[in-house]
Amino acid sequence: MIKTDYEDFDIRVDRFLSRKMTSEEEAAFKAELTSSKDLMERAQMIALMINEMRLLKKEQNSLIAEEVAEASHWHSFLGGMNVASVVDDMDSVRSDSTAMNPPSSDSGGTQQEKVHCLWPKIMSGAVAACMAGVVFMGIRHAYTVWQYQNLATERQYQAYVCDNSDDFAHFRGDVLMEGSVLAMLYRNVQTGENLEITVRQLEQLYAEALKESSALYDFRDDLAWNLAFAYLKKGEGKKAIPVLEEMLKRNERYPVLANPIRDLLDKLYQI
Amino acid sequence: MDSEKTKKLDLFLKSERTRMINWMKKRFSFSDEEAEDIFQEASITLYLCMQHGKIQEPAVPYFWRIAMNLSLKALRQEQNLEFLDDRPYDSSKIEELLALNQEGLTPGQAEIMRDIVSRLPHPCEEILWSFYGDGMSLSDIAVMLGYKNAAVVKTTKGNCMQKLKMRFDGDKKEMFYDKD
C-alpha cells in the first residue's frame, strides 16, 4: 500500500481553498476526496481548522483594535479617583457657611438681642468661611498635585520611557560616564526617588542636549520625556508643559511618539 | 501589571526586536524608521493587551499578528496595495469543502477544533497559526521563528498536523463515547 504524502496533500488543500487550482485540477481533487474517506477527513479537518482560526482571529483582532484605538485613558484616570470623598468635603464646607445666615424673624427675642446675637455668629461665620476657603484651596492644591502624580504613573506612558542602558554601552570616555548618570536619573524618575536632585540634573542635561554640538543631542527626547515625568511626579505638572510642547514640535512627523505627547498635553491642559 | 510581567514583556520585546524589524524591512520594503515605528506601535499594543488582561503572556504569534496587521494597514494607507491580503482563503471554498461529505460536520466538532487551535503547544501554535491563520509563507515563518529554512518549517508543520489530527480524532471519539 502506498503511504499518503500528507505534506503534499495539505498543499493541495491549501491551493483548493485559496482558489489556485484550475477547474480540471479542482475536479480531480474533489474526485480524489470522494474516493478516500481518509483524505476527505483530513481536508475537512484543515478547512475546519482554518475556519475556526479565522473566527478566533476576528475576535482577537477586535480586541487588538480596541487597544490600538484607545487614544484616551481619561476614564480610567477618573476611575481611580475617590470622587465621593471630594464631594463630601465640599458639602461639609457648604453646610458650614449656613452659619452666615441671620436668624429668622420668627426665632424670638428683641431686635437688640438679635443684633447682639448676630455678631458672634457673623464672626464665627467669617472664621468658618476663611477656614472653608483654606480647606478648599488645600484640597484643590492637593487634588492638582494628585492629578499630576497620577498622570505620571499611568501605564500607557511608561511604554515610552526609554531604557537606554544598552545604547550607553556603545559610548566611550566622558559620554559613557554621562550615559550611566542618565540611566541612574531615569531610574530615579521611574521609582520616584531623589526627585529634587534628579530634576535639577535633568534640567541641566536637557539644556545641554538641545545644543546640536552636544554628545547628548540624540537623547534630547528621552531627556525631555523623563524630565516631564519627573515634574509630574513632583506634582509640578505646569513645568512639564513647555518641555512636552518642544518635544511635540520635534516629533510631529512621528505619530508613534507624537500621539502620546499630545494625549498627555491635552490632559495637562485640562488640569 | 506586576513587575514580573513587565520584565517578561521587556525581555520578550528585546528578543523579538531585531528579527521583526529585519523581517518587516525585507517583507514589506519598509525603511528602518518605518519598521521601527511599526515595531513600537505593536509593542505598545501588546503591552496594553497584557495590561488589560486580554492575554497573560507575551506570545510570538500573537505579537507577530499585531505587527503584520499594522504593517498591512500602513501599506494600504500609504500605497493602497490591494493585493497584499493576509487572508488568502476563500470562504466559499471552505464551505464547499466542508459540505462535500454528506454526513457533514457537527457544531460539536467545530467546538473541538476551536478548543484545539486555541491551545496548541509550541512550536505548533506558532507554525500553524502563522501559516493557516495569517497566511504567511513557509519562508516568512522560517525568518520569524528562526528556523534554518522553509523546508525545516515544512517538516515541522507536517508533524504538527499529524498531532493535530490525532487529537482531533481522539476528542471526536471521546465526544461520541460521552454521548453514549
What can you see in these coordinates?
The complex is a heterodimer of chains A (271) and B (180). Helix content of chain A is 77%, strand content 0%. Chain A has helices spanning 6-17, 23-35, 37-69, 74-79, 83-96, 111-153, 155-158, 165-168, 173-191, 195-209, 220-234, 237-250, 255-270. Chain A is elongated and about 95 Å long. Helices cover 76% and strands 0% of the residues of chain B. Chains A and B meet through helix 1, helix 2 and helix 3 of A and helix 2, helix 3, helix 4, helix 5 and helix 6 of B.
Query: Would you give the CATH topology of the largest domain in chain B?
Result: Arc Repressor Mutant, subunit A
> Structural class of chain A, please?
mainly alpha
Structural class assignment of chain B: mainly alpha
* Integer tally of domains of chain B: 2
Tell me roughly what share of residues is in helical segments of chain B.
over 70%
Stretches with pLDDT under 50, minimum 5 residues of chain B? 80-87
How would you name the oligomeric state of the polypeptide chains in this document? heterodimer
Q: Distance between the terminal alpha carbons of chain B, to the nearest Å? A: 46 Å
**Whole-number average pLDDT of chain B?**
80
| Largest interface by Cβ-Cβ < 8 Å | A-B, 42 and 51 residues
Query: Which percent band covers the strand fraction of chain B?
Result: under 5%
CATH class of the largest domain in chain B: Mainly Alpha
Largest sheet of chain B: none
